[in-house]
Amino acid sequence: MIKxxxxxxxxxxxxxxxNANKRDLPWxxxxxxxxxxxxxxxxxxxxxxxxxxYYLRFIERFPTxxxxxxxxxxEVLKYWQGLGYxxxxxxxxxxxxxxxxxxxxxxxxxxxxxxxxxxIGDYTAAAICSFAYAQPYAVVDGNVYRVxxxxxxxxxxxxxxxxxxxxxHLAQDLLSIDEPGTHNQAIMEFGALYCxxxxxxxxxxPLNNVCKxxxxxxxxxxxxxxxxxxxxxxxxxxLFIEINGTTFLQKRTAKDVWQNLYEFPLIETDxxxxxxxxxxxxxxxxxxxxxxxxxxxxxxxxxxHILSHRVIFAQFISLKISNESEVLNRFIKTPISELDQFAVxxxxxxxxxxxxx
Length: 357
Ligand code: SF4
What we know:
Layout: H1 5-21, H2 33-43, H3 48-61, H4 65-70, H5 73-80, H6 87-103, H7 111-115, H8 122-133, H9 142-151, H10 161-174, H11 180-193, H12 212-215, E1 232-242, E2 246-251, E3 262-263, E4 266-269, H13 275-280, H14 282-288, E5 294-299, E6 303-306, E7 310-321, E8 332-335, H15 346-356
Parallel strand pairs: 1-7
Antiparallel strand pairs: 1-4, 2-3, 2-8, 5-7, 6-7
This protein binds iron/sulfur cluster.
């Protein structure tokens, strides 16, 4: 396919800019699809600075796909602890096992097969196939949406189905046939470092003579999003129950935030409870029915944890109990000194740091 001159000019300029300005990142110089996949999944909802140490630690522990597949999901989650969006880690583990069972442990090279793996959507498949195999699939992430909407002055909302199709076509049209991997890296890096969400340096931009948003003074208005994400609030009262140096945990098995991570017994309410409300709460009473003495020692200050669609307010209530009971048998009893062996949410981690001080 012969590219139109303007697209060729844009692609060449993006690649030139990238070659002169790119950040020196460990996954930039590899063609191993496994490592590229890991880096892309880590970077999906994580900043490069934070993601780097996780990537290095993850690759050190699981240097090959086989080692990842053979590990337990609990261990993979433990290595993911603190990164959030834990479905990414669960899917990595699941997909590694898919590759072992379906492709004999060899990462597939066909775009269609890559797309069949757990947790891999259009973006990740395009990234893996273009970076590892130089196949012509264009990536579209948040940075690409911003750069394209501005360069071409597109006002279609990027979160509408029409917008998604329009931007996917445009990204594909613009893609360099000779260097698809470098082009993809270049447009994302340009969005991440130069064509910033607010006040980009348009005056010195190498693309300002073809940028429609710059010409039409629309830079600050693009890209357009139609829907505001609805954010719900949740209130978690965690019970840190202590008896003879041990405490109780449960695994979050439901399809909900932090699936398969561990946590203290939880009472979820519509606001954080004070001590007098707690002791009359039905869930609380059912937990401690058979216990002679329950002392509430202290309650942390409310903690706020922001997830993509939810804000979680939490408090940790430390309790000492005089004896164990049948009801508590449904939890995992563990020495307090061994709590750091469990994969937990960042909220739990913050509390554990407080009690270890
Ligand atoms: S001129 Fe400004 S808005 Fe247009 S591509 Fe360059 S930095 Fe982005």
